[in-house]
Automatic annotation (TrEMBL):
GO terms for molecular function: hydrolase activity. Its main location: membrane. It is a multi-pass membrane protein. The keyword Ribonucleoprotein does not apply. GO terms for cellular component: membrane. It is found in: Membrane. The chain crosses the membrane at residues 12-27, 83-101, 113-130, 136-156, 163-180, 192-210. It comes from Alteriqipengyuania halimionae. PANTHER family: GH04784P. Belongs to the TMEM86 family. This is Lysoplasmalogenase. Keywords: Membrane, Transmembrane, Transmembrane helix. The lineage of its organism: Bacteria, Pseudomonadati, Pseudomonadota, Alphaproteobacteria, Sphingomonadales.
């Protein structure tokens, strides 16, 4: 009955999970490139549809846009890492707007320190990983936006165990990408870690936001 309820009420969430797990095991080079790229984009693309379908209001539009831009980033990065980074950066800017609009009224000093660490630590670590290779400055600028996204998510009124953690996992996945591109880590390791960290992060973010928004509407069927 629980499984049937999930299928009936959240078909796009279930579809996204199925696409993500199957993509992870299919991304071994046996599936033709364009098909695999479309498959990859559909994983987070269906999270955007899920958000749009389950929510209402401006914040719903924003989180759906974040997921849609993430899906475009997933596709774009397969053609050029700069193109993917552009879409992801736009998504982070939209997410920052969402989180700032939903800032937590009271933030404990320890949480402020954690947010500050994400804001500064993300670009600093990125610079340490990528410099002095070509493109390190652009990577660091992108990482500053990424760090700001994670910091504002951490001090937003959304659950830190979902949205905050999801943002941190997103940061971790991108740092692994930088390390892989810079030749700082064995690709065999990153290939097993990047996608699970990234997708889990996106999944936690979108479900955490939608859960809070629907809960405030006193809907017992909230995610």
């Amino acid at each position: 009955m629980v499984r049937q309820a999930l299928i009936d009420r959240r078909p796009f969430l279930l579809l996204s999970l199925a696409l993500s797990v199957s993509f992870f095991f299919a991304s071994d080079g046996r599936v033709p490139g364009l098909w695999l790229t479309a498959w990859k984009g559909a994983c987070v693309g269906t999270l955007a549809i899920y958000a749009w379908d389950r929510g209402r209001g401006r914040d719903t539009v924003l989180i759906a846009a974040v997921m849609a831009l993430g899906a475009l980033g997933d596709v774009g990065i397969e053609f050029a890492i700069e193109l993917g980074a552009l879409f992801f950066a736009l998504g982070h800017l939209v997410a920052i707007l969402l989180y700032r609009h939903n800032a937590r009224e009271i933030v404990q000093p320890s949480q402020k320190m954690a947010a500050f660490g994400l804001l500064l630590g993300t670009p600093i670590v990125t610079a340490m990983i990528t410099a002095p290779q070509d493109g390190w400055l652009l990577a660091t600028i992108y990482a500053l936006i990424l760090g700001l996204m994670a910091a504002t998510a951490w001090v937003s009124r959304f659950s830190r165990y979902q949205v905050g953690l999801g943002a941190v996992l997103f940061v971790a996945s991108d740092l692994l990408i930088f390390a892989k591109e810079a030749g700082r880590i064995d690709p065999a390791i990153t290939d097993w870690l990047i996608w699970p960290l990234y997708y889990t992060g996106q999944f936690l973010i979108v479900t955490g936001v939608i859960q809070r928004l629907r809960g405030e509407r006193h809907n017992p069927a909230a995610v």
